[in-house]
Each structure stands twice: as structure tokens, then as C-alpha cells.
Amino acid sequence: MAGSADDGFTAREAARITGLTVARVRALARQGVLPDVARGRLAFRDLVLLRQVKRLLDAGVPASRIRRAYASLEREGAPRERVQISSDSGTLLAANGGVQWEIGSGQLVLPMSPARAAAAIAPLRQRHQGPRLTSDQWYELGIDLESSSTTSAIEAYRHAVALEPEFVEAHINLGRLLHVTGALTEAKVHYERALRLDPLDPIPAFNLGVVLEDLGCGDQSLRYYRIALRRDPDFADAHYNLALVYERRGHPVQALKHARRYRELTGSDEGR
């Protein structure tokens, strides 16, 4: 049964409502982004915050940067449930009561026409000044470059993790691009790093399983698909890949179990 205003929402219910993974919701609660967590239950205003986090993630803002933004709002004493956060050309902005300011610096942002705004804020790629970029800016530049130059995007992500070795999202994206370009061993290193840095995110565990399969280490991949499912039991692709691994290893009962779960989660007939 779904949570109510009286008893709150579980992490799984909040994930289903907001479109985030259960692991991400639990991580945000553990990191203090959600202020109303009590006995493992989330309040309605936590759902409002989660929807905002989802919009920022969909816009390409790294989770680590979102966490820092909320920590900054906390230090500023801003009522986070009433503050709207947005991303504008790499800058995180907060708005409340008709006032908008840059998160971190506190600098007020004056309203201007779209034409003046476009002229005043150059694209990140044009602001590229080598080592003067922050790790977040290198990460955002990598995202921007992926559609035009995989090599340049890889270089940008390398700069991001060089400046911030614990930048989980940059390690994941760097690993993914190295993976698709065939640099499997190096991709594995970055997936392993992300796996150690974030004990809740299922993505690095899943990606590590895939790269191990591509390296011919199918038996080892089993372990990491299981880790991905411990972090997010509803990770459909992990169920699917586990079904294939179990089938290859001659364990039809386990293969069928995960194939069925995959179909339940996706409504797919694939794997029958």
C-alpha cells in the first residue's frame, strides 16, 4: 500500500513516484539532502525535493554537485523545500520569492532578456581555459562533447577525475566511453573506482559486470550483477544479464527466475 500524509513514504514508494532508483533515494536520505526522514519514512516535501533532484540529474548535473548545492543552501539557512534549483550554462541557481542567486557564491542574478542572457553567458565549451576549469565544469564539458567527439569527451572526463578523484559520475562516464571504444581494461579500473566510492549506486556494479563479460570473465560478472541487484532489486537489465549468465552456466532454474523478474519489470516477452 502506498504511503499517506500520516505515515510517510518508503524509499521504494518514493522511487516509484519520482522516477529515481531506490538506491539513489536512500543515498540522498543518508547524505542529509532529505530533511524529513524519520524511521525510514519520507514526508511529502521530501518527494518535492526528489522530483527537483531528478530534473537536475536529467539535465546532466552530477549527483555530487547536487549534494553540495543542498549543503550550501543548508549553510545559508535557505528553506530548501521552497527553493527552486536550476542549472544555467554550468551555474547552479537558486530561486525563492522572486529572488535568484548563485548557489555557493550567493551572488544575486538580475533578470535580463533572453538575448542579453545569451550574450552574457558563453557556452561552457567557449569558456574552456584548460586547468582553470573546475572538476564539475570538465564533467559538463565531457557531456557536451560526447555527441561530437568521443576522444575529446574522454579527455574532459580525465581532467574531472584528476581534479576530483572521488567524482563518481565522472568515473562512470569515463568508464562507459572507454568501454565502447574498446579500452576494456581501463574502463574496468574506472568502474571499480566508482563501485568503491558509492556503496549504493547499482550502475558501476552493473557496468563492471558487462565489461567483465566482454573481457571473457563471465563467471566473475555474476558477482557484480548480484551486487547491482542488492543495491537496486528492481534493476531490470541486471536481472536480464543474470538470466543469460545462469543459462550459459547450466542453471536453468535461476535463469528462469531472473528472466521472469525482467519481464515483470519491463512488460517484455524477451527471454522466454
Topology:
Layout: H1 11-18, H2 22-30, H3 44-58, H4 63-76, E1 84-88, E2 91-96, E3 99-102, H5 114-120, H6 135-145, H7 150-163, H8 168-180, H9 184-197, H10 203-214, H11 218-231, H12 236-248, H13 252-266
Antiparallel strand pairs: 1-2, 2-3
Helix pairs in contact: 1-2, 6-7, 7-8, 8-9, 9-10, 10-11, 11-12, 12-13
Task: Describe, in plain words, how this protein is organized in 3D.
There is one protein chain. This protein has 272 residues and is mainly alpha-helical. The chain has helices spanning 11-18, 22-30, 44-58, 63-76, 114-120, 135-145, 150-163, 168-180, 184-197, 203-214, 218-231, 236-248, 252-266, and strands spanning 84-88, 91-96, 99-102. Among the domains are: 1-98, Multidrug-efflux Transporter Regulator, Chain: A, Domain 2 (Orthogonal Bundle), CATH 1.10.1660.10; 130-202, Serine Threonine Protein Phosphatase 5, Tetratricopeptide repeat. The chain has 13 helices and three strands, in the order ααααβββααααααααα. It has a three-stranded antiparallel sheet with strand order 1-2-3, with no helix packed on it. Helix 1 packs across helix 2, helix 7 runs antiparallel to helix 8 and helix 11 runs antiparallel to helix 12. The longest helix is centred in the N-terminal third of the chain and has 15 residues, at 44-58. Mean pLDDT is 78; it is low at 1-6 and 112-131.
